[in-house]
């Protein structure tokens, strides 16, 4: 008999309802979009009255997730940048020279001379090679343990001798750790600069070892984006005049009033002339102080180190402010004279905070040069044209298939059509839930799914026809139709799903967008064909109890 | 009254002319391969590196004037094509392709500015709604991944069919797949349609679609082989194809309906992509009958499901097959 348990019916309809509910916001795209933007602004504490009004545009209890529109639909710029990681090794070794020189001089190994090389290593020629062993020991003392998950216990320097040449290089573990830091910093710098432009939902992702993918919707061109990324964020160290909680505090022309980054409502009055700037900073990394509390260690280059040393010697006990892009990151008190160009920032920090702060500090400037491997600009009009064309094509395809199905299968065609409409709704619902991005090939994927989604129904209907031809009763024919068509449906869709998965895993950009809608479309079309259409047919059958059916 | 694309009872013999149909397919594949090596594909910058600029203007496109404006810049190989879209008669768009410049990963800002200035001097209503640059490093990787994706998809599918059916089915299905992909590449060579990353997605969809069709036929063949244990393979195949014919045509028509809507109305940006899919659906439907099933007929199939010995398996097979 044609029977579907009550609970199964509930589950099937509930799944459809949930899917359609999540698809609903997309029908009111501009309204929900301004609702979401307003909410974000209010949550961030910068809501304007206009935002308050926009927040009322959409009922709170409804889902408000939207399908993201890809760059090709919205317009914007896409960049693929490669970070020159090796450049950082050379910078690091360059910065080591004063330290190595001082250590060797103090160790009495005789006259020494730096030899320039292109290997990103530090080469020192010893006039008295017999002191090599001692020199190597001295340099090794300068090394620090590498702090990573995998590189624990390894030293960051590799010291070797080649005749009278002392070679200092970064160890493999340290190179890996440095690469990670460089990528982290580069991502952070790019993110800060792109965020500063204030566009909606930029995508900034690491790709592979040394690449960064940047997609910014709404920006005029890739050149504009490159200029934006290329500009340097300003990091400066200022003497603190006083702390205040008023943003309208009067300051004189030699002073600045900057807000604090993480203490709300706190402002600092600073001396306008910075002691040192971020251009002098070479590294910053999360560390622990003598008491084991999280802290941030930093190093200046030679000139920055001297300036900073002089200033700290004269101002022990008074605070100085670390300022990034006109915001005070922190204002620690100088504990002691900081000589040698390196220091440590302590405070009431957690490990996460120090890690973040080290990134911010390094984020002052890009740590290494970026080469742009790929760039794409899509104008907003072209995107809008594509959306319009895609929408019309979808509707025409949809209506065409609907009419065709009714002509071919009559009442059953209507059932298949209801399932098809639910199917498209479910695709949009799933896309919204996953926060997936819809691209132009993605629309093509949906259109293709519309065409192919009826396939499963066609398989079943054709089978029912055959069974009816074999003089079976309506109930038996429907039952057998579903039973026998199942293996073909499953095999046919799994093979397509395999290709969609491969496209998703291996593809990039447009191909991926297509794979997502195609893959989701297969899943929803099988669900609607096997469960939804069948349930509709069963419900229709229970009500009408026809003696004969025509498919 | 129902719309019937095929009679409800059909008894066509699809294997009367296997020599002709298989021969024609083989020749078409051969021609495609020859075309691929002689004319080559019109690779887009995704695969070759370089820059494309789309221009939009309020007045008619003058390709000659554009070329004259760009020649003094010495950019190497520059191709300018006008974009026609019958659904948008007021569109005056063109696509300019510039080869990858020596030593550069992507076109520099200066070069791009020079190109834009030179073009604006010809026509000051020009806008540049789409600019794309791909460096040679990335394009090389894209080719590699694309080829790998197609091969991986075919291999995965081969494995799946082998798992679900017999190896003969697998060979038939893959022969049909390769046939479809090769013919699509052939058509892209003849018509010199731009072959870019999206076309690879289309190719893989063709793989999926063609397979979908083949699997439905094979599924019925498997069922009928079990039901009619003594019927000659040729008759079983013909019966199965005739039984599924109505479905095959229905699905192809609905899919084509959707794709043609997209081809006509979807705008010029994805027209090449949709064209590849339309072609794939047509070829894929043909190949599931005239290539996959025909090869299955030639290879013969183990019939006796109770015995493992493949020698014994062919005992009921038609010796003429």
UniProtKB/TrEMBL annotation, chain A:
Localisation per UniProt entry: Cell membrane
One Gene Ontology MF term: protein-transporting ATPase activity
Domain Protein export membrane protein SecD/SecF C-terminal: 370-541
Keywords: Cell inner membrane, Cell membrane, Membrane, Protein transport, Translocation, Transmembrane, Transmembrane helix, Transport
Keyword presence, Ligase: no
Gene Ontology CC: one annotated term: plasma membrane
InterPro entries according to UniProt: SecD (IPR005791), SecD/SecF_arch_bac (IPR022813), SecD_1st (IPR048631), SecD_SecF_C (IPR048634), SecD_SecF_C_bact (IPR055344), SecDF_P1_head (IPR054384)
SecDF P1 head subdomain domain ranges (all copies): 258-368
All residue ranges annotated as the Protein translocase subunit SecDF P1 domain in the record: 185-240
Leader peptide range in chain numbering: none
Bilayer topology: Multi-pass membrane protein
GO BP annotations listed: intracellular protein transmembrane transport; protein targeting; protein transport by the Sec complex
SUPFAM superfamilies given in the database record: Multidrug efflux transporter AcrB transmembrane domain (SSF82866)
Transmembrane region(s): 389-407, 485-507, 513-537
Protein family: Belongs to the SecD/SecF family. SecD subfamily.
Described purpose of this protein according to its UniProt entry: Part of the Sec protein translocase complex. Interacts with the SecYEG preprotein conducting channel. SecDF uses the proton motive force (PMF) to complete protein translocation after the ATP-dependent function of SecA.
Assembly, per entry: Forms a complex with SecF. Part of the essential Sec protein translocation apparatus which comprises SecA, SecYEG and auxiliary proteins SecDF-YajC and YidC.
Protein name: Protein translocase subunit SecD
Annotated organism of origin: Halocynthiibacter halioticoli
Lineage: Bacteria, Pseudomonadati, Pseudomonadota, Alphaproteobacteria, Rhodobacterales
From TrEMBL, chain B:
Function: Part of the Sec protein translocase complex. Interacts with the SecYEG preprotein conducting channel. SecDF uses the proton motive force (PMF) to complete protein translocation after the ATP-dependent function of SecA.
Keyword field: Cell membrane, Membrane, Protein transport, Translocation, Transmembrane, Transmembrane helix, Transport
Domain Protein export membrane protein SecD/SecF C-terminal: 115-299
Any one Gene Ontology cellular component term annotated for this protein: plasma membrane
Gene that this polypeptide is encoded by: secF
Organism, scientific name: Halocynthiibacter halioticoli
Protein name: Protein-export membrane protein SecF
Protein family membership: In the N-terminal section; belongs to the SecD/SecF family. SecD subfamily. Belongs to the SecD/SecF family. SecF subfamily.
GO MF annotation: an example: protein-transporting ATPase activity
GO process terms (BP): intracellular protein transmembrane transport; protein targeting; protein transport by the Sec complex
Membrane-topology descriptor: Multi-pass membrane protein
Family annotation (Pfam families): Sec_GG (PF07549), SecD_SecF_C (PF02355)
Location relative to the cell: Cell membrane
